[in-house]
Amino acid sequence: MKLRISATMIALLLLIMTVPTAVWAESGQVVLHDIGDKHRGEAVRITGTSSFDEVIVKVIGPNHAVLLYDMDTVEEQGEFLVAFTLPADAPLGDYHVVAGNGSDVAATSFSVVTESDGGGWVPPIAGGGQDGEDTDHLLDERDYIVMSNVTAEGQSKVKLSLDSAKLVNALEALAERNERMPLHLQIKEDASVTELELDVGALLAADRGLWSGAHLSIQWNNGGYELPLQLIADAFPDGRPGAGADDAKVTLVISQMDEPFLKELADKVHAEGGRLLSGAVEFKLFAELAGRRTELRHFGLPSSSFAMDSEADGVSWTAVAYDSETGQLRFVPSIFDWKGESAIVTMRHHADGVYAIAVFDKTFADLQDHWAREEVEALASKLVVNGVSDKRFAPDDQVTRAQFTALLVRSLGIADQSGRMAFTDVDSSDWYIGEVGAAVSAGLVTGFDDGTFRPDDIVTREQAAAMLSRALQLIERTASQTDPSSSLERFRDRNEISEWAEAGIARLVENGILTGVTPDMFNPGDSASRAQSVVMLYRMLMFTEYIHVPDGGGR
């Protein structure tokens, strides 16, 4: 099952260790085409074919640094394309390219060579490439303005400005050729804090059909940020030329967290029984109109990636978001993909913030011989579920509607939202106010016709299934199309399933997320125990690739 992500992608490469591509064998499901020699500043087009829905492409330079890490959607014809521009000071030598999905990968290489004695090669200019190669979608330092570049108290800060008219021109050029590919912006500057200001007036004035579904992949020396252009429409719903949109701006701020912050974070992780495995980076996104600046704190389903040494087994690894104001760590959905001695960590999250990787190892004394031990301890180690005490989980206890909602919200990595509550029986002082608020905002819960949520009622199997089904729709951005008649006919009590829950239950059963209490009985009105609830969440997270526990516990 591959995610259909039409939101921000953050490609953050905190490289601790890289591995030679020789350890990755050719794949029967992925084929890479030859690239040929390249020159500094030249565009590189990585093309191939695959039977997967998506492929991850990684480029490693001769100095063992990761030059590119990108995820590309495979077209219906089975083809994929990832393009980028080599830096003007790119090291000479062999570059290794790896593309694939999971353990199925293919590898190739190309060389960056010096210009010929006759000076026959010239770096490409905007709008075209060597031998007719189109590079309209590739932007670099020639396309943005460095507004300031200062260093104070050991911290460097660079501020850049980009006019969206350049994006519109690139999109129009691609549209004329009936091509669709991400726009790439390569940032040459390296700083502790990078601020990119995008003047979006030209984009708002353009036909939105031109850039619907398009995104801007912003890359720098050790990472990147993929900005969906649709986000601009969401940030400026009333933005129109002549109505205050001429000065509309979107600003991305990327901050490498300093040593005092990392110590604070490491201490917090240690207090929770874990160990910090990486540095930390903060992303903030702002929208500005008529001089008024607003932080965009909740903007879809972003994705981040880390390349890391894989000495640990990965089962207990987790990506975390850290809120320094509240001192809270929050689980971030993440998968770990092993490549020899290195692991690629891909995170998906719902808002800006500070992100890092940590390792936890949670166990409970009352789960030693329990059928759900693996699932419970895996999600406990990812900070999704808690025990009733440090050493006791109480797997057979029942779960209330508030408790299951909190579990579901945490499993999706959604931050609490404790604003105005629509339910008459949920008070601002209730411990679950933030989780229920987040669930309402995300469309995971609806409550009852009388305006109540009934938080202390025991959650039934069909109620839990309905929430899980809505979570799948949130992740995949598609409505359920499952015909309940075929999936539910195996259950003798199918007529007892409420009509509003049928489609959701059918979809979960069809995909192995939910089973009957026996092969032919579903028991929709039965309560769900703590262990059963966690197993349902675990299967959903595995199905959606929000977590990944490798066979054998790691490599």
Automatic annotation (TrEMBL):
Keyword match Signal: yes
Domain SLH: from-to ranges: 359-418, 419-482, 488-551
Coiled coil stretches, renumbered: none
One Pfam short name: SLH
Keyword line: Signal
Domain of life of the organism encoding this protein: Bacteria
Signal sequence range: 1-25
Alphabetized PANTHER family for the sequence: OUTER MEMBRANE PROTEIN ALPHA-RELATED (PTHR43308), S-LAYER PROTEIN _ PEPTIDOGLYCAN ENDO-BETA-N-ACETYLGLUCOSAMINIDASE (PTHR43308:SF5)
Name of the protein this chain belongs to: S-layer homology domain-containing protein
Species in which this protein is naturally found: Paenibacillus chungangensis
